[in-house]
Amino acid sequence: MVLYFSGTGNSKYIAKRIAEAIQENAVDLNMKIKENDTSPLQTGRDVIIVTPTYAWRIPRIVSEWIDKTEFIGGKRIWFVMNCGSEIGNAANYNRELSEQKKFQYMGTAQILMPENYIAMFDVPKEEEAWKIVTKAESVIKKIIAYIKAGKEFCPPRNNLYDRFMSGPVNPIFYKFFVKANAFQVNDSCIGCGQCVKKCPLNNIHLEQEKPVWSKKCTHCMACICYCPTEAIEYGKKSVGKPRYHFEDL
């Protein structure tokens, strides 16, 4: 079974590609998390987790969901992480999580995909995003081949920088940067509720047909990047930047 969490579509695309190639189901963890559904899951022997990289690890809300959920029949687990630049030492934490769940850890693979973290970085325009996705195709095919063959992924890079970013920097980043208080909406908002629908943590609600953010946020960027009128900004950091979600490609 392929399980994916996706903020703006990169992980969903990769997961669908893998699921189709190995003839398995692809399960949307966004909805599982949104509905607080941690009921036992019949997975079969092989489990593939596909996620973006948040602060050099898999998203906390994903690791917390995995920790709470019983995987019936699961024996082996692969992690596939997409990122704009690097995953740090995420593999070490994925291994620990696998051991806690009594899985045979089959490794962590990294795929470079278009950046979506508009709260901090520049997001590529469509032409550049296409180039990045095209370049990722060979990596996706290699990952599929490893999974089909039941082989472990090759160990990713693991230097002092990687261990520092995934280690002490990760909790600091979550504490000081992963907040919703900078989100705001302008007059071009049409009150469609798309942001409410997309938020995996039910952190957004409408008041007088305008979105209001609460304090529970994972910085998936779904609300800002899927807004049909680009009415949402993240303070001044997102002003003038193109929005990105995979479906636009």
Verbal overview:
- By secondary structure, the protein is an alpha/beta fold.
- Helix content is 36%, strand content 19%.
- This is Flavodoxin.
Provide the low-confidence segments as ranges. none
Distance separating the two termini: 26 Å
The CATH topology of the largest domain is Rossmann fold
CATH architectural designation of the largest domain: 3-Layer(aba) Sandwich
The helix count comes to 8
Q: How are strands sequenced across the largest beta sheet?
A: 2-1-4-6-7
- pLDDT averaged over residues: 97
Strand content: 15-25%
Structural class per helix/strand content? alpha/beta
Secondary-structure element string: EHEHEEHEEHEHHEHEEHE
Q: What portion of residues is helical?
A: 25-40%
CATH class of the largest domain: Alpha Beta
Total domain modules: 2
Major beta-sheet overview: 5 strands, parallel
Round the Cα radius of gyration to an integer and report it: 18 Å
Number of strands: 11
Shape: globular
Features:
two-stranded parallel sheet; alpha/beta; Rossmann fold; Alpha-Beta Plaits; 249 residues; five-stranded parallel sheet; 8 helices
Q: What is the strand and helix layout of this fold?
A:
Elements: E1 2-4, H1 10-22, E2 26-28, H2 29-34, E3 41-42, E4 46-52, H3 60-68, E5 71-72, E6 76-83, H4 90-100, E7 104-112, H5 126-149, H6 160-176, E8 183-185, H7 194-198, E9 204-207, E10 210-213, H8 222-226, E11 232-234
Parallel strand pairs: 1-2, 1-4, 3-5, 4-6, 6-7
Antiparallel strand pairs: 8-11, 9-10
Helix pairs in contact: 1-5
